[in-house]
Amino acid sequence: MSGFTHREVLPGVFHIRDAMGVYMTLLAGDERALLVDCGYGLEDVAAFVRTLTDKPLTVLLTHAHHDHALGAMWFERTVIFEQDRAEFSVYTGEAQRRRVAAQAREKGLDVPQSYLTKTIPMPGRLEAGRIDLGGMTVQVILCPGHTPGSAVIAVPERRLLLTGDDWNPCTWLFFPEALSAQAYRRNVRTLLDLPFDHVLCSHREALYPRAALEEFLAGLTDEALRAAKKVSLGHPADTREAVPAPGQQFVFDYVKADLDGKEDRR
């Protein structure tokens, strides 16, 4: 039985959840379709997407992390920004697959043996710009933050922003490849110049209002970062959790933020 579920949150916008609980989004235009991320890949993502559209399909990875990129094993070609290509092989390699397989089995999920050995082609190079799907335009934006090559997608006809992992109600910025909190804040704030009313993120089912992202960014002040409490996540970083807005968390590397010295300018 398929572990995928989906919901059409706006016309031609399908938010898809895989068996491990991460989301990907299918944008189906009149002539073409775009799949944004492809999940953990425990099941055939490509086959499931074909139950929703038969249009020519492009698969775009918002970043290289395993929960977004391992599903690339089911496609002949995907694309990703150059800045994340170096990390792709690490996050889709055998060691990471074995960790995911162990987590899946703990959840009672089946893991095919091919999951550990199936070849994943290196993604092609993604370029910022516009993609015409026919009646639906996709604007691809490089927005470094969660990773150096994080992609954000705007769909003007739906007044929609897809943030990948650059914003979730719990946003993580403690990985070694993540930017500093200040650099992240500068980059993500530029998204507010875009014409959108709705936000979809990759770790929640909800279609959020623009105000949720605005509130998060307004509360992500240096004072909030300095007041952040230490949390232990098993990473070597000095990991802290700030609360920029009610019900939202921002987990980051306090040393990289350098709040007591010169701001990281990366």
Describe this structure in words.
With about 270 residues, this protein is α+β, with helices and mostly antiparallel strands. It is built from 8 helices and 17 strands. The protein has helices spanning about 45-50, 65-70, 85-90, 95-105, 180-190, 210-220, 220-225, 255; strands spanning about 5-10, 15, 25-30, 35, 55-60, 80, 125, 130, 135-140, 150-155, 160, 170-175, 200, 210, 230, 240-245, 250-255. The strands form 4 sheets. It has a 6-stranded mixed beta sheet with strand order 8-9-10-11-13-14. Strands 1-2-3-4-5 form a 5-stranded mixed beta sheet, with no helix packed on it. Strands 12-17-16-15 form a 4-stranded mixed beta sheet. The longest helix has 13 residues, at about 95-105.
- Which geometry do the CA atoms define? globular
Radius of gyration: 18 Å
Number of extended strands = 17
- Count of DSSP H/I helices: 8
> What is the spatial order of strands in the main beta sheet?
8-9-10-11-13-14
Ends apart, CA distance between termini? 46 Å
Give a short account of the largest sheet. Answer: 6 strands, mixed
Helix content: 10-25%
Low-pLDDT stretches: none
Order of helices and strands: EEEEHEHEHHEEEEEEHEEHHEEEH
> Multimeric state of these chains?
single chain
Work out the strand percent.
25-35%
Q: Structural class, please?
A: alpha+beta
Look at the structure and give the mean pLDDT.
95
List keywords for this structure.
266 residues; alpha+beta; six-stranded mixed beta sheet; five-stranded mixed beta sheet; 17 strands; 21% helix; globular
